[in-house]
User: Which sequence fits this backbone?
């Protein structure tokens, strides 16, 4: 079955960096657009997970405005792995980050990122 497993989260100081990974299995990873979403703590009512970045099978990327220039999404189709390089992290980036495969409607379990001094 489809499985997405995130890793790489943790506690980092403002201005620091983290790289998230998402290992995919159970589908032909290289053929599909992949995305990263996040859900911040104490989310306002009605607000759900928000998209952070996406990458098509051909490598076209998308970024939410607040992360442009700081985050980089990439994929290694040989390893069936999706990445999110996060630089210049801010406290407002604190959230649980999820890997998502839209075409197979499958989510990972999430990995916590906390940006705090």
Assistant:
């Amino acid at each position: 079955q489809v499985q997405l497993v995130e890793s790489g989260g943790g506690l980092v100081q403002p201005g620091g960096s983290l790289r998230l990974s998402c290992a995919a299995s159970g589908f032909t990873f290289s053929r599909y657009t992949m995305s990263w979403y996040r859900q911040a703590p104490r989310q306002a009512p009605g607000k759900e997970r928000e998209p952070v970045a996406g990458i098509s099978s051909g490598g076209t990327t998308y970024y939410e405005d607040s992360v442009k220039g700081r985050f980089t999404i990439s994929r290694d189709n040989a390893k069936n792995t999706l990445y999110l390089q996060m630089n210049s992290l801010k406290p407002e980036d604190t959230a649980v980050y999820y890997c998502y495969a839209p075409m197979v409607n499958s989510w990972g379990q999430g990995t916590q990122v906390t940006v705090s001094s």
About this structure: The radius of gyration is 14 Å. The chain has a mean pLDDT of 93. The first strand starts at residue 3 and ends at 7.
